[in-house]
Structure formats: C-alpha cells, structure tokens
C-alpha cells in the first residue's frame, strides 16, 4: 500500500526502479513481518500459560 502511494509521485523510470526493489525485497519483508508476528504470538501464548499455571498453583 505504501509502495503504491510512492509510485504515484515518481516518474516512470523511478517507478520501474521501485518495482524492481519491491520484487527483490518483497519476500524478505514478508518473512520479516511473519517472523515478528509469530514471535509476538509465541510471547503472548507463553504469558497466558504462565498466568494459567500461576492461577492454578494458588
């Protein structure tokens, strides 16, 4: 979405350059976002498990 707004401001030559960059790094950015999402999910799951065990112990 952000790349689309940037492309509207650029001239055709710059637009081609941004398209090449997005195609090269799209997979890396997608993997990075997925990695961050899953790490947050795992942290949240571990937090809820700790809360559950703490509640069950008392």
Task: Provide the descriptors you would attach to this structure in a database record.
58 residues; mainly alpha
Notes on the structure:
With 58 residues, the protein is an all-alpha fold. The protein is built from two helices and no strands. The longest helix has 46 residues, at 12-57. The protein is rod-shaped. The N and C termini lie far apart (49 Å). The model has no long low-confidence stretch (mean pLDDT 70).
Report strand %.
Answer: under 5%
* Mean pLDDT level: 70
Helix content: over 70%
What is the H-and-E element order? HH
Q: How many beta-strand segments?
A: 0
Radius of gyration over C-alpha positions, nearest whole angstrom: 20 Å
Q: Give a quick account of the main beta sheet: strands, pairing sense, barrel closure.
A: none
Helix/strand class: mainly alpha
How far apart the termini lie comes to 49 Å
How many domains make up the 3D coordinates?
A: 1
Count of discrete alpha- or pi-helical segments spanning 4 or more residues: 2
Transmembrane segments: 25-43
Keywords: Membrane, Transmembrane, Transmembrane helix
